[in-house]
Design a protein that fits this description.
The protein is an alpha+beta fold. The protein has two domains: 129 residues, no CATH class; 108 residues, Sandwich (Immunoglobulin-like). 40% of the residues lie in helices and 28% in strands. It has six helices and ten strands; from the N terminus they run βαααααβαββββββββ. The strands form three sheets. Strands 4-10-9-6-7 form a five-stranded mixed sheet, with no helix packed on it. It has a three-stranded antiparallel sheet with strand order 3-5-8, with no helix packed on it. It has a two-stranded antiparallel sheet with strand order 1-2. A hairpin with a 2-residue loop joins β6 and β7.
Length: 279
């Protein structure tokens, strides 16, 4: 039996929007990971290949699949680079919507270009499925039973993993941004007594409610303390944090230390900037 799936663009777009719905309504579901891997590593490159190479001649299915993975990495990286210079920054939602929009736009371009071709010229995914019959002897029957058992076992394993997901790694995100919300334009030159400002961000992935506290140390002197900031699991906090250098000198180290739940030692490696302080 020959199965023909067309160009496969509609299923890929459906996958993208199903992933968006899962992230919005079920942010911690394991299906987010299952759908997210092809969404990032395959779909952008495949739709771009479909838009560029609409004919079946010149490139086979294996070549398309291999190039789709490589192009997807390049496309997603370029989208992330562009987002870094926008007000939205590199965040989950902007990346999600940007990649989904790219997949949709590339699919529309591919569809418009395919309309100009005849059915015979268009690239289509098709494969031949031959099920062993019961009249093919003992080995044919054994093979048929083995295939059915393997499919049922795979579906059962997938269902068990979805129903009883393992607790993922617990961690905390800690970062600093410039005042425009980007990973750039940090304070580099200040005068003694002049206030420097950055945006400090903390995201709780600890699986429980956590109380955080941020200390800013300029040179060897504590300049600012922020907190406590109480975050539930998967909650993010961003706030403007200022510091004031009291001593002149070049390449002064400004450290940002993060503490959680009243601990006396930082829970992560300190973040730091280098600032020239003039009189």
């Amino acid at each position: 039996m020959r199965i023909k799936l067309g160009d496969g663009l509609i299923p890929l777009n459906l996958l993208a929007w199903v992933l968006i719905l899962f992230i919005i309504f079920f942010p911690s579901n394991i299906l987010r990971i299952i759908l997210g891997i092809p969404f990032v590593l395959f779909c952008p490159g495949y739709t771009l290949m479909a838009a560029l190479f609409t004919k079946k001649e010149g490139m086979g299915g294996i070549e398309r699949v291999a190039l789709s993975f490589g192009l997807s990495i390049a496309v997603v990286s370029l989208i992330g680079l562009i987002l870094n210079y926008t007000p939205w920054g590199i965040r989950l939602e902007p990346i999600l919507y940007s990649v989904a929009s790219f997949i949709l736009i590339a699919s529309i371009i591919a569809w418009l270009r395919r309309r100009r071709l005849t059915e015979h010229e268009r690239f289509a995914i098709q494969f031949q499925v031959t099920m062993p019959g019961w009249g093919e002897g003992v080995w044919g029957k054994v093979l048929a039973i083995t295939v059915v058992v393997a499919i049922l076992a795979t579906l059962g394993t997938l269902g068990y993993v979805i129903a009883t997901p393992k607790v993922g790694e617990t961690f905390t995100e800690f970062y600093i941004l410039g005042q425009d919300g980007k990973a750039a334009n940090y304070p580099k030159e200040l005068k003694v007594g002049e206030k420097g400002e950055v945006i400090v961000g903390v995201v709780n992935h600890e699986g429980k409610e956590v109380s955080y506290r941020v200390e800013v140390v300029v040179g060897s002197q504590e300049s600012t303390e922020v907190g406590p900031v109480v975050l539930v699991n998967e909650q993010k906090w961003e706030g403007e944090v200022s510091f004031v250098p009291e001593v002149a000198g070049e390449n002064q180290k400004v450290e940002f230390l993060l503490y959680k739940d009243g601990e006396v030692e930082p829970c992560l490696e300190p973040l730091h900037l280098w600032v020239d302080v003039k009189k």
